[in-house]
Write a structure and sequence with these properties.
It is built from nine helices and no strands. It is mainly α. The protein has a domain of 48 residues.
């Protein structure tokens, strides 16, 4: 029995070695058959990876230059070289900087010339232009503030009843609800 079990074990080892050798030959045949395709796919993956890394590096450098230009502009707002560098390296940041400068100076013409990079920026620019013109227009992002502005202007004109109607449109859960209540109280005769 011992000899039989020993022979059985040897056969199993040989058959597992044969299977391993057979799989190695199949893998070699597969590689020979698709050698060019495998190398091409590998090279493509390598090129894509390198391209991605180079692109990420370039973007990072643009951001660093834009941030450096913004810091320079904060120290010296009249620096045209920094302004141009900011515009070239990060147009969205340039638009925000232009918007900030225009709002701080309360200049309608500067607001008009701010690049409108997004719907948000368009809406905020239109809101600030209308406030400077003392004619608040509807705004997606400043909806309740526009209502407060309108009511305040109506109060200044002596139209207190109309101002109260406008103030009732400010939702109670709004952060501006306390301001609306104060203005309503102000309109009581």
């Amino acid at each position: 029995m011992d000899l039989k079990s020993g022979l059985q074990e040897v056969k199993q080892e040989l058959s597992s070695d044969e299977k391993l050798l057979e799989q190695a030959f199949q893998l070699e045949r597969f590689f020979k058959k698709y050698k060019r395709l495998i190398i091409s796919v590998g090279a493509l993956i390598l090129v894509l990876f390198i391209g991605y890394r180079v692109n990420a590096y370039i973007k990072q450098k643009h951001l660093e230059h834009a941030n450096s230009a913004l810091l320079t502009l904060q120290k010296d707002p009249k620096n045209q070289k920094a302004l141009l560098e900011l515009k070239e390296n990060n147009p969205k940041l340039y638009a925000l900087y232009s918007y900030s400068t225009a709002v701080n100076s309360a200049d309608k013409e500067l607001l008009q010339n701010v690049p409108k990079e997004s719907n948000f920026l368009k809406d905020v620019i239109n809101y600030h232009k209308s406030v400077l013109e003392k004619n608040p227009q509807d705004s997606i992002y400043y909806k309740n503030l526009v209502l407060i502005e309108k009511a305040y202007l109506l109060i200044q004109k002596g139209k207190k009843e109309e101002a109260r109607r406008v103030l009732t449109r400010v939702p109670r859960n709004s952060q501006l609800a306390p301001v609306a209540r104060l203005l309503k109280h102000y309109t009581i005769q």
